[in-house]
Amino acid sequence: MEKNIKEKSLDRATLSVLNVAEKAGVRTVWDRYAAQSPQCGFGETGLCCRHCMQGPCRISPFEHGAKEGVCGANADVMVARGICRAVAGGTASHGGHAKHMAYTLLKSARGEAADYPIRDESKLKAVAARIGVKTEGRTINEIAADVAKIALADFSEKESPLTWAATTVTKGRVETFLKFGVVPTGIDSSVAESMHRTTYGVDADPVNILLGAIKCALADYSACHMATDLADILFGTPSPVVTQSNLGVLKKDAVNVALHGHNALLSDIVAQVAGEKELNEKAKAAGAKEGINVVGVCCTGNEVMMRHKIPLATSSVSQEAAIITGALDAMVVDYQCIMPSLAGIAECYHTQLITTMPIAKIPKALHIEFHEKNAKESARKIIETAIEAFKKRDAAKIQIPDVTSTAYAGFSTEAILGALALVNKEDPLKPLIDNIVAGNIYGVCLFAGCNTVKVTQDANYTAMIKELAKHNVLILATGCASGAFARHGFMTPEATEKYAGEGLKAVLTAVGKAAGLGGPLPLVLHMGSCVDNSRAADVAVAVANKLGVDLNMLPVVASAPEPVTEKAVAIGTWAVAAGLPTHLGVVPPVLGSKVVTGVLTSAAKDLFGGYFIVETDPVAAAGKLIAVMGERRKGLGLSA
Amino acid sequence: MKQIFVRPELCMGCRSCEIGCAVQHSKDKTLFSAVLQSPPPSPRLFVESAEDVKMPVICRHCEEAPCLNGCISGCLYRDEKGFVRRKKERCIGCWSCMMLCPFGVITRDKEKRIAVKCDRCHKLDLPACVNACPTGALQLVDLDEVPKEIRGRAVLSGTRAYKP
Question: Which of A66, A191, A429, B13 is the most buried (most CB within 10 A)?
Answer without folding.
Answer: A191
